[in-house]
Write a structure and sequence with these properties.
- The protein folds into three domains: 157 residues, Alpha-Beta Complex (Pre-protein croslinking domain of SecA), CATH 3.90.1440; 175 residues, 3-Layer(aba) Sandwich (Rossmann fold); 146 residues, Helical scaffold and wing domains of SecA.
- The chain is 44% helix and 15% strand.
- The chain is built from 19 helices and 20 strands.
- Strands 10, 11, 12, 13, 14, 15, 16 and 17 form an eight-stranded mixed beta sheet that branches.
- α2 crosses α4.
Length: 563
C-alpha cells in the first residue's frame, strides 16, 4: 500500500517532473575559459531571452564575439557544433536563466537545488546534461562530473506498482480531475471538525510590481502594529530575503523560513502564531506543523484571538489555486479566527504568461491599486490558463513515458532472471564454447558470477542507450507534425523498433566481452577493460514537455521547472 501525505502536491505537482537516476560521466561540463567568455556577454546585444523566460539564444553579434574570444572560425562548424557550441549554450543557460536564491542556493561551497513545490533544498538532486557543472563554474565552485541517464520513472508509473494507493491532503477537491485521470483515484471530503472563521479578503491588484511590494510592506507594518501575528508566503528565497530586509529597515523583527534554513522549520512555524510575530516563508505546502495561536505553548492565545488570529499574506498568486489554498489554510485551523489576503501585480509572471487582454482598461489609484471586477476576473483567468498548461504537460509526460514504462517491465523481468539464476552462464557458454574451454580451471561459482556481471552490465548499458536515444527522438518529434504525421504515434513506432534491437545487442556485446575480458577466481575484471559502472549516482528532475518541442533539452528549458 502506498499512503501519500499531501497527495495533490506529490501526485499532481511533482508528477509533472520525471525522476531520473544518473551516473557520473566525464567531459560534459563547460571549461573555465568558456564560462569566463560567456560571463561577459550582454543581454539583448549578445544574447536574447524568450518572452516566456524559458530559453536563451545567442545573437549573431554574440556568436561572433564568442568565436573571436575562443579563437575559432565558427561555432556552427562540424568540428564545434557538437562540442564547443553545446558547452557555450550550457554556460549561457546557467548565466541567463538560472538565478541564485531562486533556482538554487550555495551553501558551504556546495550547489543545492531548490524544490519549487516545497521551498526546501532538493536533497540528492542535480541538473542534467552538464548544466550542474555549468552553474558550479559560474559560481566559482569545484566543478563536479557530468552524468548520463541510467533510468527514469514517472510518479504515475511508480504508483502503478502498488496494488493500493491512497492519501490525504487539505486541497484534494481542486485536483479531483487529475487524480481520477492519472491514478483512477476518487476524492472523499471529510467535513470540518469546527466551522471556518477565517476571513478570505479579495485580492488586491496593482499595476506594477514595485507598487505591489510597497503595499505588502505597508500592510505588514499595519498588522504588526496591532500585535496580530503575520505569515507571509513568498515565491522564492530571494523574494523572502528582500522582504525581510525591507521590514528590518522599518524596525520589524522577522523570522525567515526558506531553503537556506529549513532545518529550523519546526521552531519557526511553532512560533509563527505568537503575538506580534512576523514570519516570511517560501512555499508552505506540506510543512506539516500546525501554527498554534499564542505560540508553541499557546500562552498568549486569548490575546491573539482578540486581535483576529493569524493573518496570512501571499505576495502573488501561485500557478495553481491549490497552492494558494495551501498557504491560505495555514490560518483559521480548528475553528480559529484568521485572515488571508493575496497581492497581485499585472507584472507578475502568472499574469504575464497566463494571457493578454488588450481590451483591459483600468484606472489605478494613487498607490497603484486597481479596484476592478474585470481585472480580478482576468487574474483568475490567467491562473486557470497556467493550470491548464500544467495539466497538458502532465498528460503529455504520461503519454510519452507509458510505452517506456511497459518496456521497463520487460527489462526488469530479464534482469531478475539474470540475477536469480545461472541463465547468464548458460547463454554465454552456448554462444562461446571455446572461451568456456579456456576457463576450465576457474571455479564454477566464479564463472557463473562473471557471466552474470557481464550480461547485467551490457543489459543496463543498452537500456541507458535506449533511453538516451528516445530522449533525442523526443527533442525533434514535434517536427513530424509538419509532415502531417502524429508525433506520439511516430514516437511509439520508433520506440518499438529500437527496443527490438536492444536485447539482441546486449547479448552480442556480452559475448564479445566474455571472449576478451580477464576472468579468474575473483570474477570478471570489467574495470580493467574500461567497462566500469558509474562511481556515483544521483537523482535529478528534468523538464519534460514534448508540446514545446524541447523535451529534456538543457537549451530548450530545464530551468522552467524552477521558475
Amino acid at each position: 500500500v502506498a499512503l501519500v501525505d499531501e497527495a495533490d502536491s506529490v501526485l499532481v505537482d511533482e508528477a509533472l517532473v520525471p525522476l531520473v537516476l544518473a551516473g557520473s560521466r566525464k567531459g560534459d561540463a563547460p571549461t573555465g575559459h568558456i564560462t569566463n567568455v560567456v560571463s561577459r556577454l550582454r543581454e539583448e546585444l549578445d544574447y536574447a531571452i524568450s518572452q516566456d523566460g524559458r530559453t536563451v539564444t545567442l545573437t549573431d553579434a554574440g556568436a561572433q564575439r564568442v568565436e573571436h574570444e575562443l579563437g575559432i572560425d565558427s561555432l556552427y562548424s562540424e568540428d564545434n557544433i557538437g562540442t564547443v557550441l553545446v558547452k557555450v549554450n550550457l554556460a549561457l543557460h546557467a548565466k541567463a536563466l538560472l538565478i541564485r536564491d531562486i533556482h538554487y542556493i550555495v551553501n558551504e561551497g556546495e550547489l543545492q537545488l531548490i524544490d519549487a513545490s516545497k521551498g526546501r533544498v532538493a536533497d540528492l538532486q542535480r541538473w542534467p546534461d552538464g548544466l550542474q557543472a555549468a552553474v558550479e563554474a559560474k559560481e566559482g565552485l569545484e566543478v563536479s562530473e557530468g552524468g548520463r541517464i541510467l533510468d527514469t520513472i514517472t510518479l504515475q508509473e511508480l504508483m502503478r506498482r502498488y496494488p493500493t494507493v491512497c492519501g490525504m491532503t487539505g486541497t484534494a477537491v481542486e485536483a479531483t480531475d487529475q487524480l481520477r485521470q492519472f491514478y483512477d483515484l476518487h476524492v472523499s471530503v471529510i467535513d470540518r471538525n469546527n466551522p471556518l472563521q477565517r476571513f478570505d479578503e479579495q485580492d488586491r491588484v496593482y499595476a506594477t510590481m514595485a507598487e505591489k511590494n510597497k503595499a505588502i510592506v505597508a500592510e505588514i507594518q499595519a498588522l504588526n502594529a496591532t500585535g496580530q501575528p503575520v505569515l507571509v508566503g513568498t515565491q522564492d528565497v530571494a523574494e523572502s530575503e528582500d522582504l525581510a530586509e525591507a521590514l528590518a529597515e522599518l524596525g520589524i523583527e522577522v523570522n525567515v523560513l526558506n531553503a537556506k534554513n529549513d532545518e529550523e522549520e519546526a521552531r519557526i512555524i511553532a512560533e509563527a502564531g505568537d503575538e506580534g510575530r512576523v514570519t516570511v516563508s517560501t512555499q508552505m505546502a506540506g510543512r506539516g506543523t500546525d501554527i498554534k495561536l499564542g505560540g508553541a505553548d499557546e500562552s498568549d492565545r486569548a490575546a491573539v484571538v482578540e486581535r483576529g488570529g493569524l493573518a496570512v499574506l501571499g505576495t502573488s498568486r501561485h500557478r495553481t489555486a491549490r497552492l494558494d489554498n495551501q498557504l491560505r489554510g495555514r490560518s483559521g485551523r480548528q475553528g480559529d479566527p484568521g485572515l488571508s489576503l493575496f497581492f497581485v501585480s499585472l507584472e507578475d509572471d502568472l499574469v504575464v504568461q497566463g494571457g493578454e487582454d488588450d481590451s483591459l482598461v483600468f484606472n489605478p489609484g494613487e498607490d497603484g491599486r486597481i479596484e476592478s471586477k474585470r481585472v480580478n476576473a482576468f487574474v483568475a483567468h490567467c491562473q486557470r490558463v497556467t493550470e491548464g498548461q500544467l495539466l497538458e504537460i502532465h498528460a503529455q509526460t504520461w503519454k510519452y513515458n507509458q510505452l517506456l514504462a511497459d518496456q521497463r517491465i520487460i527489462i526488469d523481468k530479464r534482469r531478475a532472471n539474470l540475477l536469480d539464476t545461472d541463465q547468464a552462464w548458460k547463454e554465454l557458454a552456448q554462444r562461446a564454447p571455446q572461451r568456456v574451454a579456456e576457463l576450465a580451471d576457474v571455479p564454477e561459482a566464479a564463472k557463473v558470477a562473471a557471466a552474470r556481471e557481464i550480461m547485467l552490465f551490457h543489459l543496463d548499458l543498452s537500456w541507458a542507450d535506449h533511453l538516451e536515444l528516445m530522449d533525442d527522438v523526443r527533442e525533434s518529434i514535434h517536427l513530424r507534425a509538419i509532415a502531417r504525421e502524429t508525433p506520439i504515434d511516430e514516437y511509439h513506432r520508433i520506440a518499438v523498433r529500437e527496443f527490438k534491437e536492444l536485447a539482441q545487442r546486449a547479448v552480442d556485446d556480452s559475448v564479445e566481452t566474455f571472449n576478451t575480458v580477464q576472468i579468474n577466481e575473483n570474477g570478471a575484471h570489467l574495470d580493467d577493460s574500461g567497462l566500469a559502472r558509474p562511481s556515483a549516482t544521483w537523482t535529478y528532475m528534468v523538464s519534460d514537455n514534448p508540446l514545446a518541442g524541447s523535451g529534456n533539452s538543457v537549451i530548450g528549458g530545464i530551468g522552467n521547472l524552477f521558475r
